[in-house]
Amino acid sequence: MDKIEAGEQLLLLEYVPNKSLFDRMHTHRGQSFGILTWSNRMSIALDVARALDYLHSQADPPIIHRDVKSSNILLIDNDHAKLADFGLCKLGHNDSNNNSPTPPLTPSGVKGSFGYIDTSYLKTGRVSPKSDVYSFGVLLLELITGLKSTQGSITLPEWTEDSRTKSAADVGVLVGMLDPKLNGNANIQQLRVLIDVANIALLENSEGRPDMSQIVHRILTCMEPYQLQLELPV
């Protein structure tokens, strides 16, 4: 840039060289950067959870992102991610009950991306921080399975519903949900926690979903050392 005229306003953004999470998970060019390991995926999940926790509980007023998806997660490196694209964000309630939904919107006012959008928000037109929690649950399934958020006309939560239900009691089903590109290299305790978090984040009743602060705590706790490594059944 040769010169800046007086009074000219510029928006400078950090260059993030390692592509989006979507690219790294689902495109040949992105995967040429290397397959994201289980440890990478845990770190990325934690960074996104912390970003959403900040928006919901520390920003003033609170911010509802409304478009949490893998293409809006930019990777600084394999272990660190940034949440991007606030074009659809909405301000929440600046009070002690900031999980209260906004007034209902008309159908044309409901915004988001198919596969990630909160089913409760779709039905009622009311958006809240718990809508981002739902989208984060879809993102967790994407990190676990390596699948896109939609399988044809079926969403990933619908596609995995039976496996998620059975995985709590059947380690074979649990292992079967894991992205084949990981070759079974995952931590079984962490895998169980992420599936459990995804399940409660995807609850139809948004009031039953956890806050992002609770999700951050769950992920941090299971990332402590000395967890059991996953052993594939023979």
TrEMBL record:
The keyword Transit peptide belongs to this UniProt entry's keyword annotation: no
Subcellular location: Cell membrane
UniProt keyword list: ATP-binding, Kinase, Membrane, Nucleotide-binding, Serine/threonine-protein kinase, Transferase, Transmembrane, Transmembrane helix
Topology of the protein relative to the lipid bilayer: Single-pass membrane protein
EC class (word): transferase
GO cellular component: plasma membrane
Gene3D superfamilies: Transferase(Phosphotransferase) domain 1
E.C. numbers: 2.7.11.1
Residue span(s) of domain Protein kinase: 1-220
UniProt KW Transmembrane helix keyword: yes
Domain of life: Eukaryota
InterPro entries: Kinase-like_dom_sf, PERK1-13-like, Prot_kinase_dom, Ser/Thr_kinase_AS
GO molecular function, one term: ATP binding
Record field: catalytic activity: L-threonyl-[protein] + ATP = O-phospho-L-threonyl-[protein] + ADP + H(+); L-seryl-[protein] + ATP = O-phospho-L-seryl-[protein] + ADP + H(+)
PANTHER family: PROLINE-RICH RECEPTOR-LIKE PROTEIN KINASE PERK4, PROTEIN KINASE DOMAIN-CONTAINING PROTEIN
Protein name, entry field: non-specific serine/threonine protein kinase
Species in which this protein is naturally found: Liquidambar formosana (Formosan gum)
